[in-house]
TrEMBL record:
InterPro entries reported in the protein's UniProt record: AAA+_ATPase, ABC_transporter-like_ATP-bd, P-loop_NTPase
GO molecular function: ATP binding; ATP hydrolysis activity
Residue ranges of every copy of the ABC transporter domain listed in the record: 8-221
Name of the protein in its database record: P-loop containing nucleoside triphosphate hydrolase protein
Keyword vocabulary terms for this entry: ATP-binding, Hydrolase, Nucleotide-binding
């Protein structure tokens, strides 16, 4: 990890949506410089909301949010990149502009080495150029909101290696919200577990008890999952049991 990379510090942060509904409650998280964090939680747990707040796109309702020691909303921070699906699936990629022209339009020619490396790693075609455009400028904080759904497993694996390499060679810090645990073993340095707008637990990967895997390549005829996926499956089952089925209230009141 590179020491001058920014840290992420969130203290007693509560956020309500403009319609008054609760978004995040009492969030406390500390992620060190140069860390690679996986943000994990069921649909609707608040991952996107937290990432967008950290990117400075929303005003924090109360509490403290500091990226590299400063408030991203007030400072309009340079070097904080938020990439979500709305960015990578933007229909711009379906028009006829060439890859190099698109990359040049976001300053690609200023970073020829990064541009060419990203083109190689992502095996760029028009669908992937959008992701490259978002990653091109050397960010110091990357907030990724599952952007790899469109990548095949080889491209995703190379992309994850590229991100790990970035944190080891430049001053940068990554938070990645994903539901796809495939190929992530060994990638994160930290985990954050979110449930219903709250942080359930966070810390270095070593602080989490990864469930023991059954020995042998197969279990009951199925290939075994990674320890990370087993851990996350356990969390989501627990969340589901605690929360109950969606729409239960509606069903009850409708009877
Ligand atoms: N602008 C908004 N106004 C009111 N409620 C919202 C708004 N945006 C999101 N929500 C609600 O807040 C909750 C958290 O949403 P969020 O998108 O942060 O979850 P998430 O963990 O990223 O989910 P997913 O895994 O499905 O992307 C959800 O119940 C969502 O419906």
């Amino acid at each position: 990890m590179v020491a001058e990379a920014p840290s992420i510090h969130v203290k007693d942060l509560t956020y309500n949506f403009p319609d008054g509904s609760a978004g995040l409650k009492d969030i406390n998280v500390d992620l060190p410089p140069g860390s690679r964090t996986l943000l994990i939680g069921a649909n609707g747990a608040g991952k996107t909301t937290l990432l967008r707040l950290a990117s400075g796109k929303k005003l924090t309702t109360n509490g403290t949010l500091l990226i590299g020691g400063v408030d991203p909303f007030k400072m309009g921070l340079e070097g904080v990149t938020y990439l979500g699906l709305e960015w990578v699936l933007n229909p711009i990629v379906r028009n006829d502009i060439y890859v190099h022209e698109l990359l040049a339009s976001v300053g690609g020619n200023a970073y020829p080495t990064r541009r060419d490396e990203l083109i190689r790693i992502l095996d760029i075609d028009r669908r992937r150029v959008q992701l490259t455009m978002g990653l091109l400028r050397p960010w110091s904080i990357l907030l990724l909101d599952e952007v790899t759904v469109d990548l095949d497993v080889l491209a995703r694996s190379r992309f994850l290696s590229f991100l790990a390499q970035e944190t080891m060679t430049r001053a940068c810090t990554i938070v990645y919200a994903t539901h796809i645990m495939d190929g992530l073993a060994g990638w994160p340095t930290h985990l954050v577990r979110m449930t219903l707008g709250t942080i359930r637990k966070f810390g270095p990967v070593e602080a989490f008890d990864l469930p023991p895997l059954p020995t042998g390549r197969e279990v009951g005829g199925l290939l075994r999952n990674s320890a990370l996926l087993e851990l996350v499956l356990g969390w989501l089952r627990e969340d589901l049991e605690e929360r109950g089925p969606r729409g239960r209230k509606m069903q009850q009141t409708g009877r």
